[in-house]
Amino acid sequence: MSGERLLPDPLDEARDALEEAPPAPPWDQAPPSEEPQPAFLAPQEPGQQAGSEDPPDEPTPYAPRFQLLLGALLGIAAVAIVAALLIGTGPSSGPDRNWSTWKPDTDKAGDAAQEIGNHVAPSYRLDSGAQLVGVKGGKLEVADLPVRLALAEQGNVSVLNGDGVLYTLCGLGPKCSILSGKPSAERHLLLRREALELALYTFRYVPKTDYVVALLPPRKGTAATQAMFFRKDDLGTQLDRPLQSTLASPPPRSNSLGPGDISTLQALTGKRLFQFKFEQGQDASVFLVLSPFAVG
């Protein structure tokens, strides 16, 4: 016997078994991997390099038109949004509480002026507590005739264009004089204050009002000759800030005007005091002639 081993080699048997084993049926085979292949292994289109991205699409000839139409639509949408915001935050029918807590119910010159007069007049009182004057307000008319305003200054007379409102302050005495109490510089200053408040309300709430004239009551036994004349441009500062900061409410009485009140009223009304008279024109028109009568 040779020195060769008589027992079979286990490795040779295993190798022979693998070579002779039939393939596994399909249901025993592992499913193919569904993971995407790396780009360098994926099948390539002719002329495409491995690992490169798809080339961008070519722009169509309609792209510029589409972009223009889209921009126009976005612009229209923006305008619509702004308009909606303006409508939602625009002026309301209520008072402008940033300026005053009250306003007339209408902005028509004649009706609004009388509403303003009825609102302002009861707050001004004599020292006795009685109402200082009644106020008649309306368009710049006399006996239903329109009145032209003529300003006489330094020998020159100029007829003013524009729309005006006329107030008449009447004390219900003879020729609208004040029935009770004694005339005084303080009472006269209080009348000027009332005329100023009438003008401020009018310029604020009656559109297209260029000027306001307020005829003051005379002393007893005399005819009325004094008027307050205000242009809207003269009161721009006061119209831009709350009324309360210019004229505190309620108004003081003549015997309680303080130094601050007197100083403010002199500054705002001293150069607005005029002498007035009515004149008839050759064409039957009426002129209200104002001559400066400035006081302190």
Describe the structure concisely for a colleague.
Helices cover 30% and strands 19% of the residues.
List keywords for this structure.
296 residues, alpha+beta
Describe the structure.
The protein is of the alpha+beta class. The protein is globular and about 50 Å long. It has helices spanning 10-20, 63-89, 109-120, 185-205, 236-239, 243-246, 259-269; strands spanning 134-139, 141-142, 145-153, 156-160, 164-170, 211-215, 226-231, 273-280, 286-292. 30% of the residues lie in helices and 19% in strands. Helix 3 (109-120) crosses helix 4 and helix 4 packs across helix 7. Strands 1, 2, 3, 4, 5, 6, 7, 8 and 9 form a 9-stranded mixed beta sheet that branches. Mean pLDDT is 78; it is low at 1-8, 17-57 and 76-93. It starts with 9 loop residues before the first helix and ends with a strand. The protein contains 7 helices and 9 strands.
Number of strands: 9
- State the helicity in percent bands: 25-40%
Mean pLDDT: 78
In the predicted model, the low-confidence regions spanning at least 5 consecutive residues are 1-8, 17-57, 76-93
- What percent of residues are in strands? 15-25%
**What string gives the helices and strands in order?**
HHHEEEEEHEEHHHEE
**Structural class estimated from helices and strands:** alpha+beta
Inertia-based shape: globular
Distance between the termini: 155 Å
